[in-house]
Fold this sequence. Notes:
Blueprint: H1 3-16, H2 19-26, H3 30-44, E1 49-51, E2 56-58, H4 60-82, E3 92-98, H5 100-107, H6 111-117, E4 121-127, H7 134-137, E5 141-145, E6 154-161, E7 163-167, H8 169-175, E8 191-193, E9 200-201, E10 203-207, E11 210-214, E12 221-222, H9 225-233, E13 239-242, H10 243-252, E14 256-258, E15 267-273, H11 281-295
Parallel strand pairs: 3-4, 3-5, 8-12
Antiparallel strand pairs: 1-2, 5-15, 6-15, 7-13, 7-14, 8-9, 10-11
Helix pairs in contact: 1-2, 1-3, 1-4, 2-3
Amino acid sequence: MDRFNAMRVFTRIVELGGFARAADDLQMPRASVTILIKQLEAHLGVQLLHRTTRQVSPTLDGAAYYRRCLQLLADLEETEAAFSLTRHHPRGLLRIDMPVGIGRLMVIPALPEFSARYPLIELEIGLNDRPVDLIREGVDCALRGGPTLDESLVARPLVQLQQVTCASPGYLRQRGIPRSPAELEGHQMVEYFSSVSGKRYGLEFFVDGQLRQMQLPKQVAVNSADGYLAACEAGYGLVQTPYYNVARQLQAGLLQEVLQDCPAPTLPLTALYPPQRHLSTRVRVLVDWLVELFARPGNLTSRP
C-alpha cells in the first residue's frame, strides 16, 4: 500500500463527504478508493470513517488523523520541491477560482505570460460570483473581493480595487445628473443581493471624509455582476462597481460615471488558500505572479 497516496485519498473523502465524489475528483476507480481505505484502516488498526448510505464522515480517530495527514502531505510536497527540479520548475494541476469579471477581464488575458513562465503547471479555472468552499471543492487558491470572512484560510492582499458610480446616459437624461449624494432624491438604484447570504447592498460614498451609506428606491434587484451591469445599461438606475467591470462601457459611452467627487470605498482583492497549501510551490508562484500583475499600471484596477 502506498501510504501517502492512501492519505491523499482519505483527505479527499473527508473533504468531499463520500467515496464516489473523492474517486471522481482524483480520477481514480471507485473500487480502488474503497480498497485503499480498507487497507489504511487495517494498517492503522482503527476505524477512520463512519459510513452510511447517505454520508461518510470521520470518526474521532479519523478527524485527528485527517489533521495530521494535511500537515504531512504539505510537508512532503515542500520537501520534494526543495530537492528536485520542482523547486525551480513547478509542475502539476493548479485549481483556481475567481469572480467572473476579474477572470474574464483581468487575469485570463494575462495568463499566457504565467504559462510561458511555468509551462509545466496545468490550470483549472473556475469563474464564480459565489464564494466556493476551497476545502470541500478541492480548490488550491481563490480570488475574492471584499472583506476576508473565513479566518481558517490564509489570506494575501493583492490590490485595492477602485469603485465607480455610474448609470446609463438615457437614465441620466430622464432623472438628471447628481452632483452630490444630497441630490439623489428622485433617483433609483439597481440593487445587488447575495444568492448565498441574502445580504442586500446599497450605495456608499465618502463625503467630507465620512462614509455615508444610502438606500435608494429600486425596480430591479439582481444576484450576479453581469446582471447588475445589464440592468444599469437598461436604465434601471445607479450602480457601484469596480472600475475594471465598466471600463469598456464607460469608454464606449454605454455608461456614464457620476459623483466622482464623492468616491465609493475601494474594494480589497485577496488571494485565499487553505493552510495546507501554504507551502505549495504552485500556489506560491501563482500568488506572486498575481501580486506582480495587479501592481502594473494600466491594469484596470483604477481609472487612468
